[in-house]
Automatic annotation (TrEMBL), chain A:
<dbReference type="InterPro" id="IPR037813">
    <property type="entry name" value="TAF2"/>
</dbReference>
<dbReference type="Pfam" id="PF25577">
    <property type="entry name" value="TPR_TAF2_C"/>
</dbReference>
<feature type="compositionally biased region" description="Basic residues">
    <location>
        <begin position="1139"/>
        <end position="1166"/>
    </location>
</feature>
<keyword id="KW-0804">Transcription</keyword>
<feature type="region of interest" description="Disordered">
    <location>
        <begin position="1121"/>
        <end position="1195"/>
    </location>
</feature>
<feature type="compositionally biased region" description="Polar residues">
    <location>
        <begin position="1177"/>
        <end position="1195"/>
    </location>
</feature>
<feature type="domain" description="Transcription initiation factor TFIID subunit 2 Ig-like">
    <location>
        <begin position="512"/>
        <end position="629"/>
    </location>
</feature>
<keyword id="KW-0805">Transcription regulation</keyword>
<protein>
    <recommendedName>
        <fullName>Transcription initiation factor TFIID subunit 2</fullName>
    </recommendedName>
</protein>
Automatic annotation (TrEMBL), chain B:
<dbReference type="Pfam" id="PF07524">
    <property type="entry name" value="Bromo_TP"/>
</dbReference>
<dbReference type="InterPro" id="IPR006565">
    <property type="entry name" value="BTP"/>
</dbReference>
<keyword id="KW-0805">Transcription regulation</keyword>
<feature type="compositionally biased region" description="Basic residues">
    <location>
        <begin position="293"/>
        <end position="303"/>
    </location>
</feature>
<dbReference type="GO" id="GO:0005669">
    <property type="term" value="C:transcription factor TFIID complex"/>
</dbReference>
<dbReference type="InterPro" id="IPR019473">
    <property type="entry name" value="TFIID_su8_C"/>
</dbReference>
<dbReference type="GO" id="GO:0046982">
    <property type="term" value="F:protein heterodimerization activity"/>
</dbReference>
<dbReference type="InterPro" id="IPR037818">
    <property type="entry name" value="TAF8"/>
</dbReference>
<keyword id="KW-0539">Nucleus</keyword>
Length: 1195, 303
């Protein structure tokens, strides 16, 4: 975008920011508000700089001064409501483009911003001399919905005693949510940060803490931070709370902060951070760039890890004690990720969004190196495979995943329902996969130029940046701290002398992956392996690969690598074999790693010397390989190939070969404790699948039972498991997994064998952790999971209600265990409540299989705010599942309500993404849930309801896409057939069937808004006359009670007439405008536009083949009495949607408030609330309107 | 003789009706002795020049003299047993008297005083028969190394153990089984109790008592209970920690001190690594801006 190939960075702004002061004087936890000011020091780079565009969202701005002169300003945030006055479109294509346009309009990378400050004309002349300008902005935040998150537990005591804290968060550049700034990763400046907080609190922010000073009343203290390293505003963060402070015992510059009472956990969890530091500093041969580092652990974190300049904010749930096994590696990984991002992401920033992949790639890559060093090569390769598979799957599903939106090709992405041009329009899943692909591409580059060169490149980038960062007052040098795709490639070619252009073109600029199909034949006469590699490059998400590919062939005489050239038309490759087919004598067989092993070769084909073949074993192409070889070859590969990736591939392949030989191979792997534990875990599940396929021929005890007994049970009494020790982690993981896999076994009746169930119940019964120094919570949770896995659908005799009496005996036992475990958790909660989580899943499974009545109320109570987040997510998952299975609109409403109101951002995000994964319905299927009200609600959610959280908005878009697709939702009436006369979009899709209950609202409104109806008087009177036609009996009662007192003559502007024409079968809708349109009418200009708009609607051409709608027609058809049958249907559905009423009700009230403010077109709930509260103090605050001028501006 | 009297010698109090003849030989014996004491008291009073005395005074004095004599007896017996004998000797008595603050030297003079009255010896009564102890089985004779003058062995039933309980089960399987079912019973009883006494949720609509679940109650700070190890776990940790200290070879197994405040040093021990030697001594010298004292505000001088 702003990148010039030859020159360095060119700022899109007509000024250069050099320094910014952020001062927050007051943080009020009670009111959740923040007051402060910022001062930006800028150098104009053009003459006559008259406008300064800055970023600011949701801040209320009191005054702006430029060099001590009051400056007028305009505040306009188009992303608050993406589509204005849009009532009919409702299609995602439209929304997506509007949203992209809105985001672009304020994109700091393009020099735009929400806040436009007019430089006072007195200063224009100064501009000629390029003098420095100081822009001073006073602002406040009241109950911020994004950017800053307040956690205020509802208990007794002072804020510090309650553990109240606040921290900044956001997805990509989101700093504008909490203070005005240039919210771009490419605009660097130095910082002075001041935070005045309660004396019992600590304010942790970026940079060095210079001093802490009490205020005069000694009740507060001010933390002064200075960040001399030029940093982008997007990398600035803050957290304030009554933190416990731990200075790292190894590195005194590093300070850790956690919430009260968690200090022991913090000490343990942070005890290895110094190793990560040492590792990165060593491989990068570069000191950690900042003079200090802070880790803060907060509750209700937005993401697990977020990195900012010299500090990282983590979720407090990463902390653990020494007793916890499973969390330990996860926490270390999070720390390692955070630290990698300190170097690449915080210290080195990016030029534009198109260059983001470089930073994410490098930090992901060096994190991978850390994984390799700490957790071993097996873990590393397993991780790479996992990431590759995940990414490939996503690309094939989505049809491509371009990493850089600014490649040589302008990637057309019509297949995506979101734009990838901005980080803020991306779906979260895409962002995840983007990071995944970025580090995989880095690995490909490493394969090409070697790791040594790779690290040299990183070192070069870092040393350039650190030289630049020390250059004070020479801000033009600071662009060296920004990385771009171009500069990165240039460094690579300088260091390695290699041109990786084609590689970048293939994997970065181009989306899509390669899909290989391989098969082979052995030509005995020529002693040649005839390998055929085909590609699928026609289906979506795939591309054609041309170039080298490595093939490894394990023969009797050893392992041989061959590099084949994949060309346009060559499919077949002849590979000469080294060994003679007839094996001579008993000889050890050399493997790739030099090891020589004895093999039982009786299984193999006597004519062929081939043991197994692997295509692209090093994963040096982003590909999916489907290779065909005989079952015995897979078995050899599993037993003898030492690469975990090969082992995992063969396990996957063996699922298709349910034979005793496969069984033996898998069992052997399970028993081999040299083997990587994750491979063994995989083998467990594969063995269960094979056993199920071999059901009729299976001999002996159920799969894995005797193995488990041998490994983990007492010698003297094989039915009793040993007391837990968990000294060997490999065995621990196997012990955890085996019962879960065993529970997947099924007998001929497709039930879990009685043996297995009793076995698992015994494991639970005899579990004894008294002598263990580790907690067994994860193990117990997995035993519950095993019980869940053993469940099979209940035999149901008609649709009888599930009662206690007809509970199956086995299920009763299971249920007993689950109840007891769940109850025990209340008394002795386990770490991260893992057992509760498993129990909730089990209960949902019992419901789903028809053993107990399906009922969401239990889950709803666990999903409430105030439970541990993992428990909430598990409960919500169950509710989501219930919503889909039972097609419950009540639950769907409940979930969507939570999306709008829950205090925890992560939960909101999680609900939407779970709904997306397990949707209540999809665009392909019919569902009673799919109705106009829902479309409206979701539309509103993504249009205006989620403007405070980029991620949430994208989640909402995703869900909308999953439910309705890209085009107009099918449940909406065809726009051509409905005559929609109002501009108020919310009115437009109000479900007509719920009208009667809305009588009071709408009527009241009409009283106020009569003026707006003048233009349509005739129509409305007609509609009235029919609107009060006697309703059918079903609705009568409601009408009487609600509308009755108002009299049947009161006009209802939202009245919708529905008439079913039996011959034509289409609906005619008449809607009469209401609400705010008359606000526009006040000014002559607007009323003109209003009328014009209506004319447009009337003149709109219809879809071919359908009769054009006309007022006449509507009027004509009105006298026809509505068919009772159609009303009857509606009345039933109206009761179903009672959940909506509340929502709409609010909405109407809201509108009433708005009416008082004629100037403000903008409808934003949050702000209008503010308005009401502060209407006296800030009645002319400019921050709330779309195009409102500040008082000084209007002067 | 109307008042009940406490008899010496530690025997149980004997209640006798006023003037009523008692039938028990033991009581007769004691009454006779008591009467003698009364005579003694009366004669001593006479000797001192009293012509008459109230009955109550005589009773009190009798009581005192009886206590005194009993104490002399008890003490003499104790001294005698202390020197491994069973019969008190004169010296035992003398020591006793000295111990009780009596000047022994004055005794012979007092005994030979002229005006002393001679009283009649108490009437001979049958010494009370000591009820025969139960004898079960043969008493053991002394083994050769014990001199025969030593007391006899007591009755065999006093020292021979009689197994009245079953051998404790040491079979591993049974123990495990028992522990498991005990734990399960306790847990079930406890959770049922909690469920009965508090709010519950139910999985079934027809029988809400069938599988009662303790109602989920949101907490204000949910992460604390979810992250901090429970007291039980800490206890376990402590036990295993002390019993299995040799097992700490695994580098991952660093132990958290269960007391967050007290044992700062230990809990920061690196996993299997070496503690930086400077750390312990320089704990207070760490220069970290967050540890620095908060500055006082500068006084602004307004002019």
């Amino acid at each position: 975008m702003n990148r010039k190939k030859d020159k360095g960075f060119e700022s899109p702004r007509p000024f250069k920011l050099t320094h910014q002061v952020v001062c927050i004087n007051n943080i009020n936890f009670q009111r959740k508000s923040v007051i402060g000011f910022v001062e930006l020091t800028i150098f104009p780079t053009v003459v006559n700089l008259n406008r300064i565009k800055l970023n600011s969202k949701q801040c209320r701005i009191y005054r702006v001064r430029v060099n001590d002169l009051e400056a007028p300003f305009i505040y306009n945030d188009p992303t608050l409501e993406v589509c204005h006055h849009e009532s009919k479109q409702r299609n995602l294509n439209y929304f997506s483009s509007a949203y992209t346009a809105a985001v672009s309009a304020v994109d700091p990378d393009a020099g735009h911003g929400e806040l436009v400050i007019k430089v006072p004309s007195e200063l224009w002349k100064q501009g000629d001399e390029m003098n420095v300008l100081k822009v001073y902005i006073e602002f406040s935040l009241d109950q911020p919905k994004g950017g800053l998150h307040f956690v205020v537990p509802d208990v007794e005591g002072s804020m510090a005693e309650r553990g109240a804290h606040v921290f900044s968060f956001g997805y990509q550049n989101s700093t504008r949510f909490w203070f005005p700034c240039v919210d771009s990763y490419s605009e660097l400046c130095t910082w002075k940060l001041e935070f005045t907080v309660d004396a019992s609190m600590v304010a942790v922010s970026c940079g060095d803490l210079v001093e802490t000073v009490y205020t005069h009343d000694m009740r507060k203290k001010t933390f002064h931070y200075v960040l001399p390293i030029p940093t982008a505003a997007s990398n600035i963060s803050l957290s304030v709370g009554p933190f416990e402070i731990l200075v790292d015992p190894y590195m005194h510059e590093v300070t850790h902060f956690c919430l009260p009472q968690l200090l022991p956990l913090l000490k343990h969890s942070m005890s290895y951070l110094h190793e990560i530091f040492e590792f990165y500093e060593e491989i990068l041969t570069c000191r950690y760039p900042y003079s200090c580092f802070k880790t803060v652990f907060v509750d209700e974190a937005y993401v697990q890890v977020s990195s900012y300049a010299s500090m990282s904010i983590f979720s407090t749930n990463l902390l653990h004690s020494a007793m916890i096994i499973d969390q330990t590696p996860l926490t270390r990984q999070c720390l390692a990720q955070a630290l990698a991002q300190q170097f690449f992401g915080c210290f080195i920033s990016r030029m534009s969004w198109a260059d983001e992949w470089v930073l994410k790639g490098i930090s992901g890559y060096i994190y991978g190196l850390y994984l390799k060093k700490t957790f071993g090569v097996n873990q590393y390769r397993h991780w790479i495979k996992e990431e590759l598979d995940k990414m490939v799957e996503y690309e094939l599903k989505m049809g491509g995943l371009p990493v850089s939106s600014n490649g040589h090709l302008t990637c057309p992405t019509p297949h995506l329902h979101f734009s990838i041009k901005h980080p803020h329009t991306l779906s979260w899943k895409y962002y995840k996969m983007f990071q995944c692909k970025a580090h995989l591409v880095m690995r490909l580059i490493e394969n090409r130029i070697s790791m040594e060169f790779m690290l040299q490149v990183f070192n070069k980038l870092l040393s350039l940046a650190s030289t630049a960062s020390s250059q004070k007052y020479q801000s033009h040098m600071w662009s060296q701290m920004l990385v771009s795709t171009h500069s990165f490639l240039k460094s690579i070619s300088n260091v390695s002398g290699k041109d990786i252009g084609p590689l970048i073109k293939q994997w970065v600029d181009q989306s899509a992956v390669v899909k290989f199909f391989g098969s082979f034949a052995f030509n005995r006469k020529r002693n040649v392996l005839e390998l055929e590699i085909r590609q699928d490059y026609t289906s979506s998400g795939t591309q054609k690969y041309v170039g080298p590919i490595k093939v490894t062939v394990q023969e009797l005489d050893g392992s041989f690598n061959h590099t084949l050239q994949i060309e346009e038309n060559s499919l077949k490759h002849d590979i000469p074999c080294h060994s003679k087919s007839r094996r001579n004598k008993k000889k050890k067989i050399p493997l790739m790693n030099g090891e020589e092993v004895d093999m039982d070769l009786s299984a193999m084909d006597a004519d062929s010397p081939l043991l197994w073949i692997r295509i692209d074993p090093d994963m040096s192409i982003l590909r999916k390989v489907e290779f065909e070889q005989a079952d015995f070859m897979w078995q050899y590969q599993l037993r003898y190939e030492r690469d975990v990736v090969a082992q995992e591939e063969s396990i996957l392949a063996l699922e298709k070969f349910p034979t005793p030989a496969s069984r033996l191979a898998l069992t052997d792997i399970l028993e081999q404790d040299q083997c990587f534990y994750k491979v063994r875990q995989g083998a467990c599940f594969c063995l269960a699948k094979i056993a199920n396929s071999m059901m009729s021929t299976w001999t002996g005890p159920p799969a894995m039972k005797s193995l488990f007994t041998r490994m983990f049970c007492c010698k003297s009494c094989p039915n009793i498991v040993k007391t837990n020790t968990f000294i060997s982690f490999q065995s621990y993981f196997l012990q955890k997994t085996m019962p879960v896999a065993m529970a997947q076994l099924r007998d001929i009746q497709n039930l879990c064998p009685k043996d297995v169930l009793n076995f698992i119940l015994d494991l639970i019964k005899y579990n004894d952790n008294r002598k263990n120094k580790f907690s067994d919570n994860y193990y117990r949770a997995e035993l519950i999971d095993a019980l869940t896995n053993s469940l099979t659908p209940a035999i149901s005799i008609s649709n009888e209600v599930r009662t206690v009496d007809n509970l199956n005996g086995d299920v009763r036992l299971i249920l007993e265990e689950i109840t007891r475990s769940l109850n025990m958790e209340k008394l002795l909660p386990s770490y991260r409540n893992t057992i509760t989580v498993s129990c909730l899943r089990a209960i949902r499974m019992l419901q789903k299989n028809g053993h107990i009545p399906s009922d969401p109320s239990l889950f709803k109570s666990y999903a409430e705010y105030g439970h541990f987040v993992d428990v909430r997510v598990a409960a919500l998952e169950a509710v989501v599942d219930y919503t889909r299975v039972d097609r419950s609109s009540v639950e769907l409403q409940w979930l969507l309500n939570m999306v709008q109101n829950d205090p925890a951002h992560y939960i909101r995000h999680k609900i939407l993404s779970m709904l997306g994964k397990n949707p209540p319905f999809t665009k392909a299927a019919e569902s009673p849930l799919c109705n106009e009200a829902l479309v409206d609600q979701l539309w509103k959610l993504m249009n205006s309801g989620t403007s405070h959280d980029w991620r949430l908005r994208c989640d909402a878009v995703n869900l909308y896409y999953t439910l309705f697709g890209l085009t107009r939702p099918s449940c909406l009436p065809l726009p051509e057939l409905g005559l929609v006369l109002n501009l108020k979009e919310k009115k437009a899709v109000l479900n007509p069937t719920i009208k009667p209950e809305q009588g009071p609202d709408t009527t009241e409104m009409t009283g106020i808004t009569m003026g707006g109806l003048i233009t349509m008087e005739t129509v409305s009177s007609v509609s009235m006359s029919s609107g009060v036609a006697p309703p059918p009996q079903g609705l009568k009662r409601k009408l009487d009670s609600v509308v009755g007192p108002l009299g049947s003559s009161s006009p209802e502007p939202g009245q919708v007439l529905q008439e079913e024409d039996t011959s034509k079968k289409f609906k005619i809708r008449v809607r009469i405008s209401s609400a705010e349109d008359e606000i526009d009418m006040e000014s002559p200009h607007d009323s003109q536009a209003f009328i014009h708009h209506h004319l447009n609607i009337l003149e709109r051409p219809s879809t071919p083949g359908k009769e054009p709608p006309a007022v006449d027609q509507a009027v004509l058809s009105l006298p026809v009495t509505p068919l009772p049958s159609s009303f009857g249907k509606e009345s039933t559905s109206s009761s179903k949607h009672s959940g909506d009423h509340h929502h709409h009700h609010h909405h109407h009230e809201h509108k009433k408030k708005k009416k008082k403010k004629h100037k403000h077109k903008h409808k934003h709930k949050h702000e209008s609330k503010d308005k009401e509260r502060d209407s006296h103090a800030f009645s002319n605050s400019p921050a709330s309107g779309r195009s409102v001028r500040s008082p000084s501006m209007s002067d | 003789m109307a008042d009940p009297a406490v008899m010496a010698g530690g025997f149980s109090a004997v209640r006798s009706g006023g003037g009523k003849a008692t039938s028990s030989p033991a009581e007769n014996y004691q009454l006779a002795r008591r009467r003698t004491l009364q005579v003694v008291v009366s004669s001593l009073l006479t000797e001192c020049g009293f012509e008459s005395a109230e009955k109550a005074a005589v009773e009190s004095l009798t009581e005192m003299i009886q206590s005194y004599i009993s104490e002399v007896g008890r003490c003499a017996k104790a001294y005698c047993e202390h020197t491994a004998r069973i019969t008190p000797t004169l010296s035992d008595t003398v020591v006793t008297l000295i111990e009780m603050g009596f000047n022994v030297n004055t005794l012979p003079v007092y005994a030979k005083r002229s005006q002393r009255m001679v009283i009649t010896a108490p009437p001979v009564t049958n010494a009370p028969v000591i009820p025969k102890a139960l004898i079960a089985g043969q008493k053991r004779t002394h083994p050769s190394h014990i001199p025969s003058h030593f007391p006899e062995f007591p009755d065999p039933h006093t020292y021979i153990k009689t197994p009245t309980f079953r051998e404790p089960v040491s079979d591993y399987q049974v123990v495990r089984e028992k522990a498991a079912s005990q734990r399960r019973d306790v847990e079930r009883a406890l959770t049922r109790f909690m469920a009965k006494t508090g709010e519950t949720q139910s999985l079934f609509k027809d029988d809400i008592t069938a599988f009662p679940l303790i109602a989920a109650r949101p907490s204000s700070i949910p992460y604390l209970s979810a992250l901090l190890p429970s007291e039980l776990e800490l206890q376990t940790l402590e036990e295993t920690d002390s019993s299995e200290q040799d097992d700490q070879t695994d580098s991952e197994n660093t132990f958290l001190s269960d007391d967050p405040g007290a044992d700062k040093e230990n809990s920061m021990l690196p996993p299997g690594g070496v503690v930086p030697s400077v750390k312990a001594s320089e704990e207070n010298m760490i220069d970290n801006p967050y540890l620095r004292p908060v500055k006082k505000p500068k006084v602004r001088r307004k002019k």
